[in-house]
Amino acid sequence: MTWVGLIGYGGIAQDVVAALRDEDASGDTEILGLLARSGRSEIARQKFPELEIFESIEDLLTEGPDIVAEVASQGAVAEYGEQILRGGVDLLVISVGALADPALHDRLETAADFGNSRMLLPAGAIGGLDAIAAMRIGGLNSVRYRSRKPPAAWRGSPAEKVVDLGNLAKPAMLYTGTAREAALLYPQNANVAASVALAGLGFEQTQVELVADPDAPGNVHEIEAEGAAGKFAIRLEGKPSRTNPKTSALASLSVARALLNEQAAIVI
Known about the structure:
Layout: E1 2-7, H1 11-23, E2 29-35, H2 41-47, E3 53-54, H3 57-62, E4 67-70, H4 74-86, E5 90-93, H5 102-115, E6 119-120, H6 129-138, E7 140-149, E8 172-178, H7 179-185, H8 191-199, E9 207-212, E10 219-227, E11 230-238, H9 249-261
Parallel strand pairs: 1-2, 1-4, 2-3, 4-5, 5-6, 7-9
Antiparallel strand pairs: 7-10, 8-9, 10-11
Helix pairs in contact: 1-9, 4-5, 7-8
């Protein structure tokens, strides 16, 4: 049995709980509770009446989870990550962009070493990370990631200062540069950029393009990589989450898959 604690009560949390309920018919993976900030716990209880709601990370950890899954925000990774890892509990992080902060990255790595725990990074909204990581071992020369999303998916981000999202008639480049800057500037949109960077050449050497496209069929992710072992290109057209257009529906399924793998006899 794998006992799971969740941080967050938004759309991804709802989708993760639903996916685990549908897929884990054997009951090998069980959510023991969910952390919501004091003052927001009643909202969480309305959304998750079947789950125990905790208002402090200490209370959640006291229940003895085997793994805690962050499905909230980069801020939650920074606030709770060290305490979880130092306490010897594995931490699954969906807001991978938080690791673009080098100081936080180092603190979390140190905490994991101290607690003999692991920080797990699911693939999220994209595929191909396994190929990039394997190519890195043999010699990786270049990696480029491009994100194309409908204008609505960029609302509430710096994109609103770059273009008029409400009257966009053709694709507009919002950002081009490094994965580190993209992840820090667009914390709700560029977690995939951070994942690609960590799998491959790192934050400074991974090139990123962010595009608002009124004709985008959904959240479109494209990766191009080349190295000594060859080259590949992948394109994924993900449907946005029902509850948050900034997030691909695949992201929550990726979290559920990673949690189910904790008890799987055959892991892919």
